[in-house]
Amino acid sequence: MSSRTGEALVGFVVGAACALSTVWVLNRSKELRSLVLGEEDEEQRMRKELSEAYRITREFKMDELVWNHLSVMLSDGSFLITPGSRMFDDIGPQDLVKSSGNITADIIHDAVYKTRPDVKAIVHLHTPATVAVSCLEMGFVPLAQEAAPFVGRVSRHPWHGVSNDKEEQEIIGKAVKDVKVNTLLMENHGFCTFGKTIGEAWVLAYYFDKACQTQLNCLQTGQKINYPSEKVLSYAAEQSLLDDFLPGNCEWDALRQMLTR
Length: 261
Fold this sequence. Notes:
Layout lengths: L2 H57 L9 E5 L5 E3 L21 H13 L5 E5 L2 H7 L19 E4 L9 H10 L6 E4 L3 E6 L2 H24 L8 H10 L12 H7 L3
Parallel strand pairs: 4-5
Antiparallel strand pairs: 1-2, 1-3, 3-6, 5-6
């Protein structure tokens, strides 16, 4: 082997070693950055997704001016929520706060998160159909397929006026303490849905609103209602928890994609 060939080979080996070292350093730097900024990255992701949830709510006309509120829990124990002063389609990631300007939002959401560590997202709305059902003595009655996720999972909370009293937190906590509860019907007020993700909580809210509208439609006919049997309701409730039908599993990505059109 000539000296020139040997020098070239040595140069190649040294160059390859340097390249591998550089790759290792870069990868290690990414790992360290991920460890250091993990919570920050999580918060930015949640800010983006939650702001999209507000826009989707507005898209479906389920909002009420600057009122009502959606939130997500962060791993540091705080939660993101509306500032309480913006229309839903005007809320961007940077606008979300960790303490709302709306005391009602803080009281309701804080009460649920403190009581239910399994809940990572909450949707609280006052849609016409759900408010109407909240005013009925019979409360919510599951009548059709969209009501399946709520069979045996809806709790009720009596109206205490505007939720600006810290003492109401304990009452709300008692109403949602059962881990099976995914919806709180707030009498003469509105409702909340709970999920492990904002997608699950939002899609539950959509179907609860739809189920309440079905209930009202049936009542308005004045005809005798064909109530589903307990057996069918129980079976449908079990089916709604399967991966193929779990609220949000199929719908949420499609709803977020809708915003890009």
